[in-house]
Amino acid sequence: MTVQIVIELPESAFSALRTTPDDFVKEMRLAATVKWYEMGTISQSKASEIAGISRQEFLAALSRFNISPFQVTPEELAEELARE
């Protein structure tokens, strides 16, 4: 099941970004999911589902946005290694 959401934007937004409305929507979905992933709100799997792309494509997008695919802090990693 999908839900359709309507967002009103000025027409100038598309020319400012040099994109079509369809491409703008795809980029907006991707940017939102990348940010939510970076914040730890959603997983890679859920992010790729929301963005409408494969997990591999999502990982490539993380690189494009300069976001690490690893969402573990150095402290969490040290704790994990200390347990083993």
TrEMBL record:
It comes from the Bacteria. Belongs to the UPF0175 family. This is UPF0175 family protein. InterPro entries: UPF0175, UPF0175_domain. It comes from Floridaenema evergladense BLCC-F167. Pfam families: UPF0175.
